[in-house]
Design brief:
By secondary structure, this protein is an alpha+beta fold. The chain folds into 2 domains: 6-207, no CATH class; 214-319, no CATH class. It is built from 6 helices and 17 strands. It has helices spanning 2-19, 24-46, 113-130, 166-170, 183-188, 193-208; strands at residues 49-57, 64-73, 76-82, 87-91, 97-100, 108-110, 140-145, 151-153, 163-164, 214-218, 222-232, 249-257, 266-273, 286-292, 296-301, 307-311, 315-319. The protein has an 8-stranded antiparallel β-sheet. It comes from Cucumis sativus. Residues 30-147 form the NERD domain. This is NERD domain-containing protein. InterPro entries: NERD (IPR011528).
């Protein structure tokens, strides 16, 4: 009997994988959460500030280019591409990556992440110049990170040294001078601490005020990047949310209000007014309204044309880019 139950369960898992693939939002959540986990570890290892989910204007295309992360530390700025890949990965002659295994029915071709990250560096250098920060050639270094423990390589020696494999990632340790290189920066800045501090401050200011994806944090410490579109609410709650607009609000927190008996659930929506003079908001700047459990957030995910309606009961917070 137990053998039949076990066989039935395993058969269900197999059929589910083939005929009911993972929801796109689930995949986006896993990838975005991996991105923030990488940022947190890099900040602990090297200090500084990791800017995640940037949307930098590209002068060549006239569009905004999504950039996973830029880490700014003392005298160092590193552009980082995070690929949360699993299965066996090899590199083809044209630089594209071939992903196989881990439940895939066929091989997947991934455009060259190395070339993609190099292009990010070029776009960022142009953007910094437009914002009045001139960087010498080579000031921005770059890396491609592969943090998934299920990642495996075929002929790993084919990959450039800028690609950090999983086994390298878990053993990564802070270096005495800088994260990856740094000698170009030190030479250009003449080794003067004041000049290095000034450059770090400029980079931090530009990136802190650069366009970013909105950030939706869900229950279970899951994060999704994308664009907040609107609230879907009942007519009686529309008035309560009228002040929550991107131009006025930077962060929204959701708290469930405890009720006794069979009273319908209500949720407390705390939101901070946007202050362009300072980063963040003080306690006195938070405002509060309440809405019903039927309220939803309409959210378009990064790298996707799909629009999702997320129940307010599933949401922890929502950060809105300026």
């Amino acid at each position: 009997m137990w053998a039949e139950i076990l066989c039935g369960f395993l058969a269900f898992r197999v059929l589910r994988r083939f005929f009911f693939p993972r929801d796109e939002m689930e995949i986006e959540t896993i990838d975005s959460s991996a991105l923030f986990a990488v940022a947190s570890r890099l900040e602990k290892l090297y200090g500084g500030k990791a800017f995640v989910g940037l949307r930098i204007p590209d002068a060549d295309t006239g569009l905004r280019q999504s950039i996973d992360m830029v880490l700014v530390t003392k005298g160092e700025a590193v552009v980082i591409c995070v690929k949360n890949l699993s299965g066996f990965v090899s590199m083809s002659a044209d630089g594209s990556w071939i992903c196989e295994g881990d439940g895939r029915q066929k091989s997947e071709i991934l455009p060259d992440p190395v070339a993609e990250t190099r292009r990010w560096v070029s776009i960022l250098e142009s953007y910094f110049e437009q914002r009045g920060v001139a960087l010498p050639e080579g000031y921005l270094s770059w890396k491609v990170l592969l943090p998934n423990p299920k990642f495996r390589t075929i002929h790993s020696n084919y990959f450039p040294s800028e690609v950090i494999m999983y086994d390298q990632w878990i053993h990564l340790k802070p270096e005495p001078k800088s994260m990856f290189s740094g000698w170009i920066k030190s030479a250009w800045l003449g080794g003067k601490k004041e000049m290095q501090d000034s450059m770090d401050q400029k980079l931090n200011f530009v990136l802190n005020t650069a366009p970013m994806w909105d950030r939706l944090e869900l229950n279970g410490n899951n994060i999704v990047l994308g664009e907040f579109l609107e609230f879907k609410v009942k007519k009686e709650d529309m008035q309560a949310l009228r002040e929550i607009r991107r131009s006025k609000v930077s962060c929204i927190l959701i708290q469930k209000i405890r009720r006794i008996g069979f009273v319908p659930s209500r949720f407390r929506v705390l939101y901070s007014t946007r202050d362009y003079r300072n980063e963040g908001a003080s306690a006195s700047e938070w405002k509060e309204v309440t809405v019903g459990s039927s309220t939803m957030v309409v959210f378009q995910m990064e790298y996707s044309s799909k629009v999702r309606k997320v129940k307010i009961s599933s949401i922890v917070s929502l950060s809105l880019s300026a």
